[in-house]
C-alpha cells in the first residue's frame, strides 16, 4: 500500500465525521467559514505549519496555540475537532482533512470544481459563460472555478475537471503540431 493511499484512508474518516456532524446540526455554512479561516491561516504561515508538523513540540503547547489563535474566530465544535486532531497526532494532516472535507461538501451539493489556467485574466462575463458551459457539460448544479494565470500558455486556456483536461491554449496547439511534425 502506498503512503498516499494510507494517508487518504486516515484523512477520509475525519473529513466524513466533520461533514456529518456539520450537516446534522445545521452548521454546514458556519463550519465551511471556520475551515476557510483555518486554511487561510495555515497557507499564510509556513511557521505555523512547521510548528504543527513538528513531532517534538509538546501536545499541550500545540493545543494552547490553537486555542489562542482560533478561540474567538471559530465555533466550539471546530475548535474541539482541532484539539482531537492534536491529541491523536493527526494535526499534521489538517490541510488534507480540510481539502477532503470541501471535496465531500462539493459532491454533496453537486458542485463541480473546474481548474482553469488562462494566459490572461477572465472577465466576469467570461467566467459566467464558462460556468454555464461547464454546468451543461457535467450536469452539475453548481460550478466553482479555480483560476490560475499562466503566461506560458501564450493564449487561450486549459480546463481540468477531475481527471479530464481540455486544452485550447496556443502553446497546447503548438505542442500538438510539433508532435505531428515529428511523426512524419
TrEMBL record:
Asked whether the UniProt record includes Thylakoid among its keywords, one would answer no
- NCBIfam families, from UniProt? ATP_synt_delta (TIGR01145)
Primary location recorded for the protein, binned into one broad class: membrane
**The keyword Transport appears for this protein:** yes
Q: Name one GO molecular function term.
A: proton-transporting ATP synthase activity, rotational mechanism
A single Gene Ontology CC annotation of this entry is: membrane
- Where found, per UniProt? Membrane
InterPro entries registered for this protein in UniProt: ATPase_OSCP/d_CS, ATPase_OSCP/dsu
Keywords assigned:
ATP synthesis, Hydrogen ion transport, Ion transport, Membrane, Plastid, Transport
Record protein name field: ATP synthase delta subunit
Q: Which Pfam families match?
A: OSCP
Amino acid at each position: 500500500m502506498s503512503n498516499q493511499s494510507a494517508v487518504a484512508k486516515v484523512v477520509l474518516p475525519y473529513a466524513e465525521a466533520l461533514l456529518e456532524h456539520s450537516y446534522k446540526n445545521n452548521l454546514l455554512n458556519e463550519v465551511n467559514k471556520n475551515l476557510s479561516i483555518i486554511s487561510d491561516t495555515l497557507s499564510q504561515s509556513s511557521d505555523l505549519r512547521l510548528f504543527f508538523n513538528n513531532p517534538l513540540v509538546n501536545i499541550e503547547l500545540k493545543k494552547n496555540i490553537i486555542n489562542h489563535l482560533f478561540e474567538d474566530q471559530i465555533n466550539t465544535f471546530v475548535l474541539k475537532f482541532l484539539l482531537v486532531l492534536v491529541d491523536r497526532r493527526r494535526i499534521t494532516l489538517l490541510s488534507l482533512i480540510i481539502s477532503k472535507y470541501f471535496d465531500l461538501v462539493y459532491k454533496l451539493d453537486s458542485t463541480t470544481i473546474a481548474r482553469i489556467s488562462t494566459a490572461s485574466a477572465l472577465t466576469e462575463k467570461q467566467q459566467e459563460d464558462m460556468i454555464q458551459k461547464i454546468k451543461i457539460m457535467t450536469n452539475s448544479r453548481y460550478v466553482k472555478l479555480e483560476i490560475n494565470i499562466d503566461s506560458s500558455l501564450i493564449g487561450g486556456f486549459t480546463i481540468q475537471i477531475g481527471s479530464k483536461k481540455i486544452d485550447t491554449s496556443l502553446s497546447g496547439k503548438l505542442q500538438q503540431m510539433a508532435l505531428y511534425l515529428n511523426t512524419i
